[in-house]
Amino acid sequence: MAQPDPKFDSFDWVLYSDPNAINSISEGNEYVYFGTESGGILRYNYYGQYFEEAITTAQGLPENRITAVYFDHYTGILWAATSDKLNYSYTALGDWYSIDLSEYGLNSGSELIQIGSSEEYIWARTLTMNIKCDHASGMFIGQFITPDQNEIYWSSDQFFPYDDFSQLLGDYSIAGKWNIFGNGLIGPYGQTVGITTYYRGEHSNSWIGSSTGIILHSLPGMNSFEAIEYGLNTTDIQFILPGSGFWLGGQIAMDQESGISRFDPGRSVFERYYFDEFLGMQLQSSYSGLVVDDEIWIGGEGQILIYNNKKDDWNTINELHGITSGKILTMTQDSSSVWVGSTRGLSRISKSTKRSIFTGLESYYNERFVYFLFQHDNEIWIGTDYEVKIFDFEENIVYDLGQLIGDKIVNYSVMKYFTAYTSFEGKIYIGSQNGIIVYDPISTTFSLIQSGLYNNAIIRKMVVSDDYLWLIANNILFRIGRDGSSVRQYNYNFIGTLNDLYISGDYLWLGSSSGLIKFNWQRDL
Fold first, then answer.
1. pLDDT for 479-494, tens place per residue?
2. CATH class for the region spanning 13-228
3. Would the pLDDT of 2 be above 70?
4. What is the DSSP string of 323-380?
5. Start-end ranges of CATH 2.130.10.10 in the chain?
6. What fold is seen in the domain 236-524?
């Protein structure tokens, strides 16, 4: 894990993901804590009324599935139950300690669904048993069918589909487009949302957790709830697209509610666009994105989602419009069209008509992986397994990068897997398995960063900052000095499988199978 390393503060690494269901709620001195099904522990500052960074595996938790969470006012210790462990932190941030549930005599598969405390002890409850523990260390003291103490303060309990909420919700309304229906909720687009837990805090705040991560909050003296949310609506992030914050998409599971997320890091605000809420959105995994004038283009598999900012609506174009089949890995644009590269070829789409424009290159790239596309002046650069082609769309000619390089890079002819591109201060960086080519268009000079620095691996993505080149290769994050003088590897378990990266000032953003990760990279210099 990263955070227990003394060189990092608790939130030098931050993980944002899809919380899914809210399983447990507890109130602390400053925060309301929400234990989630897959997003760790959410922290809501009830003085400022905003969410702060969640506590996840990036802070040392063994997993992000939290079945119960509890803040002990007697000791200031934060407790969290995961699938097979009871965990606690003296700082209520990082430095987590874990106890296997087997040490409490619980059978495999047993889960803690509620945590509480008396003045002397910590209590944890399964569906059938109450566990009594030491207040400070979680050491096992005994098992009880019914606790042998009366003054116990508990986290919220988990509700089940057959529970009756009519008395709880009968006198309340919900602000906005949400409605109470039977024992659950109806969302703004008609979706049914289950209620999973309820908590009434010491300050008479009422909280309701739902099956989709939506949280309802009622202030003291109010007979209405307000819906608030935090987190993404998909976890396996394949691309990060800057544009009014970040647009994020990725792999979806067909049995889960998924979609596209927009995240404003400055305000910590999330907007979720679910596939089942918009008629123009077709269910798909997403692999790339592009800002096109007032539109957001998101590449899926043989189709592209297009969001119109002015109209606030979605549409889908697909192979019937001339989109190449396969996973759309990359897109770029010229003044009138969008170039689309996929695992099965290349296409060019008119911005205005959303129809294909014939280039003559389609047959050449048919059934070939196109890893990157980018525009430079009046050219489109195209990266594939064994070559980089340059298409001058004004002169309508195609030539190979090797014609520019000549003999300036030894053994260029045997280089392969041109899979990544980035630019910085006017220079073009092209990543291959055999080295990173650096091209200065002004001086027309070439240089090579040796592939041994990143273990001669295939590069997934890369970006450049003032002094460093950052890249993903063999699922390891590398930081390489631009002069090749230093190499640093990051392969912490919580990072997951890396798919994309973006750098902005002091922060490196990573798209991974674990979610969106923010890394304060200046802390590691």
1. 999 888 889 999 898 9
2. mainly beta
3. no
4. --SSBEEEEEE-SSEEEEEETTEEEEEETTT--B---S-HHHHTT----EEEEETTEE
5. 236-524
6. Methylamine Dehydrogenase; Chain H (2.130.10)
